[in-house]
Design goal:
By secondary structure, the chain is an alpha+beta fold. It folds into two domains: 28 residues; 149 residues, no CATH class. Helices cover 25% and strands 41% of the residues. The strands form two sheets. A six-stranded antiparallel beta sheet has the order 1-4-8-7-6-5, sandwiched between helices. It has a two-stranded antiparallel ribbon with strand order 2-3. A hairpin with a 3-residue loop joins strand 7 and strand 8. The radius of gyration is 20 Å and the shape is globular. The N and C termini lie far apart (65 Å). The relative contact order is 0.18.
Length: 187
């Protein structure tokens, strides 16, 4: 009898864990998926995503990069890249540390063969403040990295924005630009 109760209790716990873990993944925004080859931070959920067949992207790669409202783009130390574009935005669980999240993605990128072109954090340069407010608005600890990887002559750029919002959760935006690739034509 005691072994039957232990079995039932164990089965109930396993079933509960399965339901909880499947509901966590079900919270991703419908139609959104991770960028292939980049590991999601454990416990985070996708709350927004977008794609464009072809985009002209101004990639900040230095402390002098800044947003120009008159021409609606970054100027200064900027690399101009065009190609197929994807953006995935994640939100982590309450209590997550933005430094830990940033380090996770940066480590994953470098171990996947990406070269970090530039990284910054809130306060690195007065002009960089606009980078953060354009993406997330003002907030707590903010971090940025731009990376590139070339395979068979095709360059893939990844831009990482991380911000601690309200001191409780962390938001992440990952932009991927495959240079020269038109998503619709598959080139």
């Amino acid at each position: 009898m005691a072994s039957a109760l232990v079995f039932c209790a164990t089965s109930l716990c396993v079933t509960s864990l399965c339901i909880m873990s499947s509901s966590a993944w079900a919270a991703d925004r419908e139609g959104c998926k991770d960028i292939p080859g980049i590991k999601r931070y454990v416990g985070s959920q996708i709350f927004a995503c977008s794609t464009r067949d072809f985009i002209d992207y101004h990639l900040p790669v230095g402390r002098d990069a800044r947003w120009n409202d008159q021409i609606r783009r970054y100027v200064g130390q900027v690399e101009e890249v065009d190609g197929g574009y994807s953006r995935i935005q994640y939100e982590t669980a309450v209590g997550t540390n933005s430094i830990e999240v940033f380090d996770h993605y940066k480590s994953d990128l470098t171990s996947s063969g990406f070269k970090i072109l530039y990284e910054a954090k809130h306060g690195d340069a007065e002009k960089n403040r606009q980078l953060w407010s354009q993406e997330f608005g003002s907030g707590g600890d903010q971090r940025y990295a731009a990376a590139v990887k070339e395979v068979d002559g095709v360059k893939t750029y990844v831009v990482l924005y991380v911000i601690n919002i309200s001191g409780e959760k962390v938001r992440v935006a990952l932009d991927q630009i495959v240079a020269g690739k038109n998503e619709r034509e598959g080139r």
